[in-house]
Amino acid sequence: MSNKTLYFLGIGGIGMSALAQYYMLRGATVHGYDLTPSPITERLSQMGAIIHYEEDCTKIPAQVDMVVVTPAVPKSHAEYQYFLSQGVRLWKRSEVLGMLTEDHPTLAVAGTHGKTTTTSMVAHLLSPEVPVAGFIGGIAKNFGSNFVYDDQPQRAVVEADEYDRSFLTLHPAAAVITSMDADHLDIYGTRENLIEAFGQFGRQSRHLIVEHSIAHLLTHPDKVTYGFQPDADYYAYHVDVKPNLLTFDLRLPDGEWKALKLRANGLYNVLNATAAIAAVRHTDQVPEAIIRDKLATFSGVKRRFEYVMERPDFIYIDDYAHHPQEINSVLTAVRKLYPERLLTCIFQPHLYSRTRDFGPEFAKVLSQADRVILLPIYPARELPMEGITSEWLLGMVTQPDKLLLQKSELIPYLREHPQELLLTVGAGDIDRLVPAIGEL
Predict the structure, then answer these.
(1) Domain that holds residue 123
(2) 213 pLDDT above the threshold of 70
(3) Mean pLDDT across the stretch 173-192?
(4) Is residue 216, in this structure, part of any structural domain at all?
(5) 343-348 β-sheet, strand order
(6) Is the pLDDT at 1 greater than 70, yes or no?
(7) Are 258 and 321 members of one domain?
(8) What average pLDDT does the segment 294-309 reach?
(9) What are phi and psi for residue 8, nearest 5 degrees?
(10) CB burial readout 338-375, b (16+ within 10 A) else e
(11) Which of 224, 175, 183 is CA-nearest to residue 200?
(12) What is the reported pTM?
């Protein structure tokens, strides 16, 4: 791609921006559009990308060798329509990712939950001993980026997204599947269809590493399991939970490792770590000493059980959770760590369709908090659906201490009502409020 010009429609997305960085490092000139500036677009601009923030076809270069689009950009977008009218081929992000990973043996991590953290862990455990090109669906703190690029990469480490069946463009040397809970039903219709897609993804990989409790749903000639079950190939046990420290033992097919340490919270992160260890041991045979040291220095991912503020009078944790199962896992972890504190959970629902499909489940999980605050639904790529609102969701929450606030009302409310234990969850733009909340 050296001396080529690429155009990214929706360049500020977490997956799109990683591709943009990859191609810039390979010598390409990158232009792009995004809706609003962000730390990600600022970083891209510093690297040399030319980015604008208004629908303006005159900002598109006269000669473009490849146009990459994200599903987040509506087809009615002026620039999208311009490329269609010019007969330009529009490449999906997933298609481009599938194409470029053909150059490297790929380790791909999929799952409805846990894939971002597990992908980050895999990249951290491998790099730089095994040079990688890593494409992560979040900002991995160890790298300060969603993209990792070692000199002369020997392996691609990729977060494989199930949305829109994007992961089916990948044919990895090894695949990890962390979970297959019902989600994206606007695409799949039923969980059975979702599982079938995961099965196809697994069959497209040479090796399959899968969480034990769902392994029976998938067939593969080289299937390795991990989990908390004694008959798993990689069995995690003797788990000890302290704030910001998980310690556990691990039985592997070829031995037993004692007292592994991980600076993280939540039992689900023990599973994520076990998946990452299984992946790198099964494919690259990274020595125990390196894995042990790397695991102890894993710093996590932005917005994954991230401590924003930790004072004696105020603990504030932010998380990307946007599915009932994810929120339940985070709430459970917070409760276990701070059982005596009054827990306030602020949730910004993401997508009308997901809110509709899992409304009762969201309400049940959120009702575990001592106080529930809902923000309006973040629409992302969707138009409103009649009757599907945060008011509707709040009506199903059984916790009596509950309220609905506009985003503009949240900071004034929190200023007037000091919290002792606060959790914000959601995948929309709630992250824009996090710094101001942390300063209260």
Answers:
(1) 104-296
(2) yes
(3) 88
(4) yes
(5) 306-310, 315-319, 421-426, 343-348, 371-374, 402-404
(6) no
(7) no
(8) 94
(9) -110, 115
(10) eeebebbbbbbbbbbbbbbbbbebbbebbebbebbbbb
(11) 175
(12) 0.90
